[in-house]
Design a protein that fits this description.
alpha+beta, 50s Ribosomal Protein L5, Chain: A, 5-stranded antiparallel sheet, 4 helices, globular
Length: about 200
């Protein structure tokens, strides 16, 4: 019997029936699902090999698999960039690794952000959600003593949802702590004039 991550169980047992009731789907295959999660970070073009190796090590610890180094396609003199120079690294997670990472992100990492008031509810218009994390040490897997340089990480959650509202409902049911939309304050009605 294969291992099923707890967030994937929660999706199958709670989120799918709730979405079917909420959105009026007649078939469970209509319900949006997660396709993949990508983790991406940039590396300074002038960085030495130690910084590149440390960044790659930290992303490996976060994702549980080794990231691919992204290299520049052409030289740009204004940016002091040579062709073939390492400018970033990225990793794509699918299956159980995706569910495990997403669980750690939602349940452990995001709540540890200082003055955390919730995530922005804005998606990209096609049902995908991108989070920008300015410091990767919010994840408990990263040992702060070993970190020489703090890096920012972009995390993109790709879904099969057709609209942003469907994807937002899916992510909310999975536990994504979205910021509550502030309701606009209605101006008070003018006081009646005395006769």
């Amino acid at each position: 019997m294969s291992y099923i991550p707890s967030l994937q169980k929660h999706y199958a047992e709670h989120a799918v029936p709730e979405l079917m009731k909420l959105r009026g789907y007649t078939n469970k295959h209509e319900v949006p699902r997660l396709t993949k999660v990508t983790i991406n970070t940039g590396i300074d073009a002038e960085a030495d090999k130690n910084v590149i190796a440390d960044t790659q090590r930290d992303i490996t610890v976060l994702a549980g698999q080794k990231p691919v180094l992204a290299k520049s396609r052409k030289a740009i003199a204004n940016f002091k960039l040579k062709q073939g120079q390492v400018v970033g690294c990225h990793v794509t997670l699918r299956g159980p690794a995706m569910w495990e990472f997403l669980y750690r992100l939602i349940a452990v990492a995001l709540p540890t952000i200082r003055d955390f008031r919730g995530m922005s509810p804005k998606l990209d218009g096609q049902g995908n959600y991108t989070i920008g994390v300015t410091d990767h040490t919010i994840f408990p897997e990263i040992t702060v003593d070993n970190v020489k340089k703090h890096i920012g990480v972009d995390i993109t959650i790709v879904t099969t949802a057709n609209t942003d509202d469907e994807a937002r409902d899916l992510l909310r049911l999975l536990g994504m702590p979205f910021r509550r939309a502030e309701t606009p304050v209605k101006p008070a009605a003018p006081a009646p004039k005395a006769a």
